[in-house]
């Protein structure tokens, strides 16, 4: 008698990405293996019961199974289904993870990010917690008996090395280590190829009435969905991973080694959060973003018009509008008492803008250097951080004269964990020696921004700058201000608009000490 409704009580597979501040866990709940020949069901019936219907799910993510059916060969691994003997060994873990949305004191499950995968035969769930609570997280798993039958776990980031012994000693779980950049790129390729609704950008709320009209940055708040990777034209693209520090990676193609970390910046999310901890009373990242949203950075930053006055002829010659920042924190340099008239909210905003502007500049130059129109910004600095996403969208559009687009991903912080898992499924395991070697090689290649520019690169940049200059001279100045959506992107990507500003569930507050 066919079993029409095999239960969706799955095997749980785990993967971690452990950075200096946060750790992301990705869980895959796989359905039980197909029934044996004695209780065979027809294929259609089986697949429809194995995979839950996403349209009823609370997730915003629809799984593009048609695409996967056609392109499954292009995924970075051949999906494994669990052996029959493996199931349902991890039921305890599954029930525990399923029943709770908070774990310990800083663990949070992000319901809105979960999605189904027909190819993987299960659902992906996402949890993060603060890395400093790693020992408590391991104890939680151990004391609840959750580690039974979990022998291996994909892992990437610095923590894959730092906490490896702790995991094996305390709970007997072996870390299958993967290189950080490779995991990131693998995760990005996976979500871009298989998830509908993953990629988006910000555009102005309205279209210019005439070419002289300037659309202000504040109006760049319309969240617009972007298409996934469909073909070779997508490459090369730039990935800017904004974590504690910032990595700039060029991805040349779908193959797993077709990327290079081209440069980095030490001014990243850690800089922002570190300076804010020093200069404000905020105790959580969520609080400081909230504070920044009410601040005014123009009390702190020196604007071009502060230097030039509002002299249209002079500004036209300079080719910079008066409203943009000339020097972050520059206004404080010439005040008798720098703290007069400013408070914590203005500081929080100015630090956020300084960090974001710097990243935007390097990202734009990197895109120019490698002649690409796509920059994907990821990493947890952007988490619930519409202010930076909007600034990046506006700046990249502005500096590139509407030829390069800033793109964002819904699973921005979990791409490394996802990639580490996928690579592990492929049977890869970077031994520490191999990781060291890879990182040495990439270290040699990826020096700081200035060093990375070889003579040829500089010549190219100068050539491009010259071309841009002559384009700008022939253009009306206003054409670089918030032009209506650029034809190149609209034609390339096809577009679907999401009417509201980036909608994310508000972060549940992070309780210190797990
Ligand atoms: N709850 C949070 N607590 C602390 N920082 C947070 C939080 N949420 C977001 N952030 C931001 O995310 C940054 C860390 O990002 P992410 O976790 O992607 O990097 P990482 O992996 O630690 O660093 P790197 O990529 O440089 O190794 C922090 O510096 C901060 O700006
Ligand atoms: C060190 C890493 C790669 C760790 O994720 C990251 O923090 C980073 O890219 N920092 C910038 C380092 C540099 O100057 O290239």
UniProtKB/TrEMBL annotation:
Any one Gene Ontology cellular component term annotated for this protein: cytosol
Skewed-composition ranges (Low complexity): 47-59
The UniProt record lists the keyword Kinase: yes
Enzyme type, top EC level: transferase
Entry's Gene Ontology molecular function annotations: ATP binding; pantothenate kinase activity
Keywords recorded for this protein, A-Z: ATP-binding, Coenzyme A biosynthesis, Cytoplasm, Kinase, Membrane, Nucleotide-binding, Transferase, Transmembrane, Transmembrane helix
Subcellular location(s) per record: Cytoplasm
Transmembrane segments: 12-29
A Gene Ontology biological process term: coenzyme A biosynthetic process
Family, similarity comment: Belongs to the type II pantothenate kinase family.
Protein name: pantothenate kinase
The species this protein was found in: Triparma laevis f. longispina
């Amino acid at each position: 008698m066919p079993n029409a409704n095999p239960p969706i009580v799955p095997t749980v597979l785990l993967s971690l990405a452990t950075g200096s501040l946060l750790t992301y866990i990705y869980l895959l709940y796989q359905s039980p293996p197909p029934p044996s020949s004695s209780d065979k069901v027809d294929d259609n019936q089986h697949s429809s019961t194995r995979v839950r219907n996403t349209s009823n799910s609370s997730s915003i993510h629809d799984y593009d199974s048609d695409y996967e059916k056609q392109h499954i060969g292009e995924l970075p691994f051949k999906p494994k289904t669990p052996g029959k003997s493996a199931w349902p060994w991890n039921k305890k873990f599954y029930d525990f993870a399923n029943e709770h949305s908070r774990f310990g004191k800083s663990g949070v499950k992000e319901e809105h990010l979960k999605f189904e995968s027909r190819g993987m035969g299960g659902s992906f769930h996402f949890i993060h917690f603060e890395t400093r609570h790693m020992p408590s997280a391991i104890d939680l798993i151990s004391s609840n008996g959750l580690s039974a039958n979990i022998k291996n776990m994909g892992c990437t980031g610095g923590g894959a090395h730092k906490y490896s012994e702790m995991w094996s000693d305390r709970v007997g779980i072996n870390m299958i280590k993967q290189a950080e950049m490779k995991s990131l790129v693998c995760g990005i390729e996976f979500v871009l190829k298989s998830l509908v609704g993953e990629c988006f950008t910000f555009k102005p709320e309205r279209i210019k009435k005439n070419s002289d009209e300037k659309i202000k940055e504040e109006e760049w708040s319309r969240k617009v969905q972007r298409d996934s990777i469909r073909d070779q034209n997508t490459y090369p693209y730039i990935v800017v991973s904004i974590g504690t520090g910032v990595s700039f990676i060029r991805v040349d193609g779908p193959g797993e080694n077709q990327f290079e970390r081209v440069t980095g910046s030490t001014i990243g999310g850690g800089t922002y959060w570190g300076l804010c901890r020093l200069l404000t009373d905020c105790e959580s990242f969520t609080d400081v973003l909230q504070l920044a949203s009410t601040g005014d950075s123009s009390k702190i930053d020196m604007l071009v018009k502060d230097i030039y006055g509002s002299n249209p002829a002079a500004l036209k010659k300079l080719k910079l509008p008066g409203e943009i920042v000339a020097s972050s924190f520059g206004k404080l340099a010439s005040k008798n008492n720098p703290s007069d008239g400013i408070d914590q909210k203005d500081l929080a905003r100015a630090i956020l803008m300084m960090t974001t502007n710097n990243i935007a500049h390097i990202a734009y130059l990197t895109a120019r250097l490698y002649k690409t129109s796509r920059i994907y910004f990821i990493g947890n600095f952007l988490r619930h951080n519409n202010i930076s996403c909007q600034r990046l969208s506006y700046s990249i559009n502005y500096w590139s004269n509407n030829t390069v687009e800033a793109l964002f991903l819904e699973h921005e912080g979990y791409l490394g964990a996802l990639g580490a898992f996928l690579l592990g499924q492929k049977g890869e395991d970077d031994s520490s020696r191999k990781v060291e070697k890879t990182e040495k090689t990439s270290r040699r290649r990826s020096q700081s921004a200035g060093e990375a520019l070889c003579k040829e690169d500089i010549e190219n940049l100068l050539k491009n700058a010259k071309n841009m200059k002559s384009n700008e001279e022939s253009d009306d100045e206003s054409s670089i201000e918030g032009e209506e959506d650029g034809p190149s992107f609209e034609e390339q990507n096809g577009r679907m608009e999401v009417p509201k500003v980036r909608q994310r569930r508000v972060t549940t507050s992070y309780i210190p000490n797990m």
